[in-house]
Design brief:
Largest sheet: 4 strands, antiparallel
Number of strands: 6
Structural class: alpha+beta
Order of helices and strands: EEHEEEHE
Length: 82
Amino acid sequence: MSGQAEKGRNEAAIMCDRTSANAIVGYNTVSNRILSIRFRERKVNVTIIQVYAPTLMASEEELRTIFSTSYKAPSIEPQKET
């Protein structure tokens, strides 16, 4: 999970069962709203990118920040190996 723990909002999270949890190779919290996680599969590893996108009520700056940061997520390999 990534996000603002003290406020309990604007968090990206991925929930999985025990089998999937055991297959986690690594993860990367790109920002408080973007999380990438890599799973070990039989033939290839799979990376999932979870984005908690702002609503239309968000400020222009917040929208600009999330969309500019989200373009970087696919190029970032998960760095925290488990």
